[in-house]
Write a structure and sequence with these properties.
The chain is of the alpha+beta class and 542 residues long. The protein is built from eight helices and 32 strands. Helices cover 20% and strands 31% of the residues. The longest helix is centred in the middle third of the chain and has 41 residues.
Length: 542
Amino acid sequence: MTNNAAVSSPVAVLLDSGNLVVRREPNTSESDVVWQSFDDFTDTWLPGNKLSRNKKTGVVKRMVSWKDRGDPAPGVFSIQLDPSGATQYILLWNSSTVYWASGNWTGNAYTGVPELSSSNSDTGSAYTFQFVDNDNETYFTYTVKRDVQMVTRGVIDVSGHFEAWVWVDAAQAWQLFFAQPKAKCSVYGMCGAYSQCSENAELSCSCLRGFSESSPSSWRLGDHTAGCMRNLPLQCGSVKAKRDRFHVMSSVRMPDKVHITDAASVYDCELTCLNNCSCSAYSYNGTCLVWYNDLINLQDGMGVFSDSIFIRLSASELPSSGTTKKLWAVGIIVGGLVVLSFVLSLSILYFLRRRRHIAINRDDGKLIAFRYNDLQFLTRNFSERLGAGSFGSVFKGILPDATTVAVKKLEGLRQGEKQFRAEVSTIGNIQHINLIRLLGFCSEGAKRLLVYEFMPNGSLDHHLFQSSAATMSWPRRYQIAIGIARGLAYLHDECRDCIIHCDIKPQNILLDMSFAPKVADFGMAKLLGRDFSRVLTSMRAR
């Protein structure tokens, strides 16, 4: 007979890390684990868990979003290490389309996510980030330091954004401290088919005219990926197809999967779409663009990046037809040309006025007090981002005299306008060959921006850590180090209002055309104030 008392049943243990472990026997080692929840990601990433790729089996462990906030079934968004072998992690739609990447690991941080760095004064005091690449696997993980009492988690949200949250005991709530990508509408397919994504609207997704939510219940729970469906079917497949008409949408960014066809005019382009039962929209700007089947990633447009698109609808969705239709089409074209001419004229006048206004200020040799609209214009509505850090994002701009500048949008400022202008004035008077020069600023309510000289060779970390960058010679590295030291010495001992930087790192060292170094962000302590501990806990100014 078998002694059943000597046989132990498997035991499930919930560890302090949040890992649910099933062991063959209680109080056994980790090698005796039958199953653990850390081996099966859902939508949540806890400290100590690995976002990994097994080099021998090819298995990639990835996080997958919920379908919606009330349904834990797998959604369409996921995050994983790059299966190509690049040392980065990527966000995907439908396991196929990459819509965001972290950039490669530099040994301390990812190039596209400098804020998630173990040396960053905001996160580094609490977290340790680690990227491991050995013979068996590649993985990225993070841990909370032992002396820090903090509960944190990472989540791939139903909106397609990767978010990091920390539990605030005093508020008894989770607080978001990191999210990517920054722009809501850059998430591929977030709003589904026949829906428009609006970056600045409270509701990011809205159905186009003539369409309604495919799944209203999921829509209310935050899952818009099912998109919208037609209220009335098209009259395709018979002579009635001619009854289908088009609703024009202006100032939009075009959907994906566009096809270019031969058409000599806007009328020919419309006929091309009407003659194909799968065609759902067209646009004409000298070239005929058509879209077949679902429209994906239609967005609100801005300025020169926007255009008009004609959405195909059943005739009953739009008023009248026949002769009125022709008059309506002609009226749209003629009216559009008139409006376009008027807008172009105003734009030219506005440009000349802004050019004269800005040029006069620069001739004074003092800091330029920009208006926010000026900087929107000069940066093409902040369309070309040069980088991002703890204090905000930096965008490329071009002044009317063709001078290239870097425009930084500051985040988290608590100062009043008078104090902000005083501190900016102090920093603007500090000039040294190894310090980045402040050219101007903007202060309109909560909108605070700084305008710096542009550094064509970017930041030092790009040349030290990017695998694609040319190897920097040791004499050049030595000269850069000397230049950095001279800039810091001037800040500490030679300028009238001395400043301690406290955040020196390769990302804050910029290189000009001849690779001469310039220390950047040296005035952030004065601008942000001593109590801005959430961004830079160890920063001080004296």
